[in-house]
Fold this protein.
Amino acid sequence: MSYKAGVITVSDSCSKGAADASGPAVAGMLRDAGFDIAYTNIVPSNISIIRSELEKCSDDLELDLVITSGGTGLSPRDVTPEATRAVIVREVPGIVQAMIAEGLRSTPRAMLTRAVAGTRSSTLIINVPGSEKAARENLGAVIDTL
């Protein structure tokens, strides 16, 4: 059975044409794990736009998994967790705890993440950081369980 996944990069600069490294890295990891990448997009850091993308992926496309990359830090423009909390029904804190634990092996700054994981309908939504290295580490910590 193949699971359908989506990858949404949240980045003001990438939405304006800058190169996106984390989105393709996440998509590649998911593909290697057997997921069918059914949707990808790059959006600016805007709560309404992010919410709309997550609702589309869950409600319209009925994806099994959506990974967002970016917008999980402490900058005023980092709003991915707020958008995610607005659309999920149940949080899955163990996923975030596992990702933080893995990140702390590389840097103490991993504890500054505000990532969220949760479900909307039958879609699992997980936020990972926007840097390629951190996105790989975070997803790597949980991908076998997914």
Q: What stands out?
A: DSSP finds six helices and six strands in the chain. The first strand starts at residue 4 and ends at 10.
